[in-house]
Design goal:
about 500 residues; mainly alpha; about 60% helix; globular
Length: about 500
């Protein structure tokens, strides 16, 4: 009996040794993969003044950061539709090596820079506190998926959606990362829960916690632990800025991301790359300071866009660019999140208004001021947010009493919040780093504004001095003229 026990202990020790040896081997292999990628990524970064606008501006749109509002109500207002590239949320829809446009926005991660003229491209982004971004990702996944509940069953919803999408040109939410993964998955879950309610004879569910109505929708505490969420949402901003999402153009992205998720200590290398890229970006905004970020963008980037348009030697070529035609919807509200992402490409022939003339571009240049930009921003943001609110309310009727709001978030247990923080440790540190960059941008903006004000005062003072000199010169000339006339009169009297 004793020898058998000793043999069992020996086997357990042997297995433990083998497991430890295997784990160490896996770690060393992962460390090599991540280090090599990080070294290559850092070497690719272009040295120079990243705060100077280049020919093409790439808006790296991190999901659920208010990016759509930021793009439509601010960035696009600065550039104008004439300079916007065809929407590229699902794939590049223009020749990136010979762009005839100046502004591209996409959910693609930073790896898309391998497809763009890197030395001629500036990058900007907007970041949000990770806990709020996870809340918003959960809410949006449920909101969009719930629109399919107007159908009698999942098969009907899926088949009809395929037929409708096949008839439409353009991009829908189901084509865009990460929603192309999250929405179909959440849609399937919602139908399964509805079927379960029918079997139980539940026609109404009462709850005070919108984030934990298990009979209606997947609870938040379950959502944050699902594999698809672990792969697309948590630390999503860091992976997106680093170019390592599951939508990456890099062949090694999957291995690097997998290694970081398995050995969290390796995330330091990814964070270092993401921070370096934020340092080199033209502009970094914060969702929590949306209006202040807008003003900063208008003051810092706006004048550079004006100058770029003014000095462009190919203005005649730019006049041939077609403005982007915004489609009111791609699919019906019951099928997709219409109006959330539209595509700028179309097989339709251009209308009279689609051709942008040189005069129109000159008008953009002359009329664009910081004050004008902010006026248009304020006029745009309110109706856009109202429409989003109405759409959200209508969508969530199918899963009432789930009613997402800031007030409802306060009811979520601290244990769930702490788990979200733990799962997004890289994003928390990246956001903190972004706050430091934002503070530096704010200082730079005040320096620019102060400089412009001094120039204005100097110009005004110069104008006053010039006016004074002109008046004095006129008075002196008039005085000389009077003297000459008086001398002539005296000469005539002597004769």
């Amino acid at each position: 009996m004793v020898p058998t026990l000793k043999f069992a202990v020996f086997l357990l020790a042997l297995f433990a040794f083998v497991d430890a040896s295997s784990a160490e081997k896996d770690f060393l292999q992962c460390e090599k993969i991540v280090r090599e990628w990080a070294r290559s990524a850092l070497e690719e970064e272009i040295e120079g003044d990243g705060h100077t606008l280049r020919d093409l501006l790439f808006f790296l749109h991190v999901p659920r950061t208010g990016g759509r509002t930021y793009f439509h109500c601010l960035v696009k207002k600065v550039y104008g539709a004439a300079l916007e590239c065809p929407r590229s949320y699902d794939k590049l829809r223009f020749d990136p090596r010979k762009p005839k446009c100046r502004l591209v926005a996409t959910h693609d991660d930073y790896s898309i820079m391998s497809m763009l003229p890197r030395e001629k491209t500036s990058v900007m982004t907007v970041l949000r506190h990770p806990v709020d971004r996870v809340f918003s990702a959960y809410e949006f996944s449920v909101e969009v998926a719930s629109r399919f509940l107007v159908h009698p069953n999942l098969t009907s919803a899926t088949e009809l959606t395929k037929r409708v999408r096949a008839k439409h040109k353009g991009v829908s939410t189901l084509d865009i990362w990460p929603w192309k993964y999250l929405v179909p998955w959440m849609r399937e879950d919602l139908f399964a829960r509805r079927d379960a309610r029918k079997m139980k004879g539940l026609s109404y569910v009462n709850s005070n916690d919108s984030y934990n109505v298990e009979e209606m929708a997947m609870p938040l505490h379950q959502f944050i632990n699902e594999p698809v969420v672990l792969d697309t949402v948590h630390n999503g901003a860091t992976f997106q800025v680093a170019g390592l999402t599951n939508n990456s153009y890099l062949a090694e992205a999957h291995d690097v991301r997998h290694c970081v998720q398995k050995f969290t200590i390796l995330g330091e290398h990814v964070l270092q790359v993401a921070q370096k890229r934020l340092d080199n970006m033209l502009f970094v905004g914060l969702t929590e300071k949306h209006r202040e970020s807008a003003k900063m963008f208008a003051n810092v980037v706006g004048p550079q866009v004006i100058s770029q348009i003014a000095s462009d030697s190919s203005m005649e070529g730019l006049s041939k660019i077609k403005s982007v035609t915004e489609q009111n919807s791609l699919l019906s509200d019951s099928e997709l999140d219409s109006n959330y992402h539209q595509d700028g490409t179309s097989d339709q022939k251009p209308t009279e208004n689609e051709n942008v003339s040189t005069e129109n571009l000159e008008g953009i240049k002359k009329n664009m001021t910081v004050e004008k930009i902010m006026e248009e921003y304020k006029a745009c943001i309110s109706p856009l947010r109202n429409s989003q609110s109405v759409r959200r309310t209508n969508s969530l009727r199918e899963i009432s009493p789930a009613n997402f709001s800031k007030e409802a978030r306060l009811l979520v247990p601290e244990t769930v919040l702490q788990q979200i923080r733990s799962l997004n440790s890289l994003d928390l540190r990246l956001f903190k780093y972004a706050e430091g960059i934002y503070a530096k941008q704010n200082e730079r903006m005040h320096e620019l504004v102060t400089t412009e004000e001094l120039k204005s005062v100097s110009s005004y003072s110069h104008g006053i001095r010039l006016w004074q000199a002109t008046v004095l010169a006129t008075c002196f000339a008039f005085f000389i003229l009077l003297c000459v006339n008086a001398r002539r009169r005296r000469s005539k009297l002597k004769i």
